[in-house]
Amino acid sequence: MNFRMSEDVNVISEVYPSVFFKFLRTKERGVEDSSSRWIKIMDDPLEYIVEISCDPAKDLKVKAIYEVLGYNKVLTLNELRKLPDEEYVQFDGSLYSLPEEDDIKVREGIDIQDKIVRLEEVPEFFQRDIGLLKRFLMQF
What we know:
The protein is an alpha+beta fold. Helices cover about 25% and strands about 30% of the residues.
């Protein structure tokens, strides 16, 4: 945390959104100035989605995106402003926590965001599943 002293000897610090920040807003003795009142800290974390598109002659494109509830919109991590605490992102005046993921391989995949995988690197069973899913979806 970075602290600085104002001219009237008040201690000013940057507080990252966390349980502590939410706690401070419930206390009567805390004074929050107008520069931070606009911030809404959302209770629900963002949901991540993995979007896979396939060019049967070439490759798979894998993209990790986040769904912002109530906006009917999905965004990449690049479109969200990641805060220094690495746990929250900012979008449209609100702060959202990133989803927790215990599996290190899944976390690494989400962090990559965009990846192109050549078809020869894709396991045969997965290629079959994609083909079956595509045929199923074409029925609608």
